[in-house]
Amino acid sequence: MATFSQLPREIQQAILDHLVVDKGYLTQTDRKNLLAPMRVNSFWFNHTSDILWNNLSNLESTFAQMGFDDDRRQLYVNKIRILNLHTARIYFDLIEHLKFQSLTCLKLRGDHMGILPFLQPNLKTLHFHSSFALTRHELRQLAVSCPNLRELQILPLAASNSRTLIVKPNSDPIDPGTFSAFFGSCKNLKSLTLGKKLPSFLIPAALTGLHPLSAAQLEEIVLSNIEPEALSQESCKILESCTSLRKFEIRDNYTGSPVPVAMVLKHLTTMASLQHLRLDHDLVGDVVENCIRGHSAPFRNLQSLAVKGDMLSISSFLSLSMQSLTRLQLVVEDHAHHICPSLARLQNLTYLNLVIGIKHHDSFTDGARFKPQPHDWQAISEDMQALSTLSKLRSISIRPMNINLTAPWMTDGYFSTWTNRFPNLRDLELDIECFSESYIRDFIIRKFIKNPSTVGMKPLQLEAGEEDPWRRSDLGPDQPRVTQVHAQAADL
Fold first, then answer.
1. Do 400 and 357 meet the contact criterion of CB atoms below 8 Å apart?
2. Measuring CA to CA, which residue among 382, 284, 378, 285 is closest to residue 336?
3. CA quadruple 29, 22, 61, 46: dihedral positive or negative?
């Protein structure tokens, strides 16, 4: 058996992480537990110090207890590489003259009077959550002081042009010109995430401000909960320069307003580097067909796809020869058609998450979850047969959205035969009405728990569906019973 020192660094780090329960609020016992590992070697010292000083309140409480002067404070601050800053306004007067020279990762999760003490050349990861209230001066200093910035997330939960009553008002708010100039100076950016409460006019300023050479290095772009006006023809055109882009997402459509997805798809269609695509906005009609028309091999290296929309638009995606695709997440807002036969050509799929339903609906009332609804979707044998051809699947999830999924024809023998088509299955989740709930549950116990080696995994944690309040003892033998089976693999 390997000793601790022989384990991969990632496993050593995971073990050290378990020395404390809550990294944000270290107890006195947590701190004592970290003192011994800090003395083992340089790797242990660096990682345990990351845990010990990852929150400024932990550091300041130590300063307060020991009465350190500025020189002693600076000595401790020099050890900090990762910092989760929930608020700086309480401690700002104590840290404004310090230099966080070793800081590589800064995550701002609360109000802050300023970030100037944290802006150092070694900073590579910077996250803005909760608020983004920088002044133009701070943004310019960020561009000058952090030339090696690789990852930037700006996802504020509060308005960017306001600060709390405790924090002084922002008298020099960021304008689009300054914001655009800042992104023009980001020469080494690899990952960019924008959205939430960030003003819509700043997003196109950021995208258009990227220098073509800088855009060519970008590997990830994530836009979250954005307004339609945030994406313009000019801002989307920068995607043509993103020749190294591996991941693109437009996620969390909380606004309900559609963004110009077609304009985005046209620029992504022939991008050879793209491996992951997620679009949380509905694809409707022939929007996909129009984008891929005339291209010989669109999305030819795509490995992960997550889209939602009607049958026509999703079928256009699935009609492509995407044999590189291994992960597929679909939300089909069309209960009248059957999407499963279209999946059969994706022979390399290992992960399938399929949701079928309707978007506009009246909410289910208590006790009515499985009562027949006018839009219920009934699976046919061709659906299950098509899925059974995907023998490489390791995870299957089929769930309804605001409707019921039914398969009254599914017998014990059919279900047994169907599941045996997936020799590598590790995760199974079905939310479907069919016969013989007890048999299916017992079958899963036999297949996955009594002989876990056949699927290469540890015993499962099995969670059966709740009792249907509508199910009555007077149900006839020909009426389907509710089956909601959820089996989750316990990975090492």
1. yes
2. 378
3. positive
Ranges of the chain whose pLDDT falls below 70: 1-2, 4-5, 9, 13, 16-28, 30-31, 35, 51-68, 86-94, 110-114, 158-170, 253-257, 321, 335-336, 359-375, 435-492
**What's the sign of the alpha-carbon dihedral 229, 234, 235, 239?**
positive
> How are beta strands 247-251 and 276-279 bridged, if at all?
parallel
CA distance 343 to 172: 54
Q: Is 268 helix (H, G, I), strand (E, B) or coil?
A: helix
CA distance 457 to 492: 9
Angle at 324 between CA 319 and CA 327, to 5 degrees: 85
In one letter, which amino acid is 463?
E
Does the predicted model carry a pTM greater than 0.70? Answer: yes
Q: Which parts of 37-157 are beta strand (E)?
A: 82-85, 105-108, 125-129, 151-155
What are the backbone angles phi and psi of residue 385, rounded to the nearest 5°? -65, -40
Nearest to 280 by CA among 355, 179, 341: 355
Instruction: Answer yes or no: are the C-beta atoms of 335 and 358 closer than 8 Å.
Output: yes
> Amino acid identity of 402?
N
Q: Count of CB atoms within 10 A of residue 352's CB?
A: 20
Tell me the C-alpha to C-alpha distance, in Å, between residue 427 and each of 263, 325, 407, 424.
Answer: 36, 19, 20, 9
User: CA-to-CA distance for 252 and 291, rounded, in angstroms?
Assistant: 23
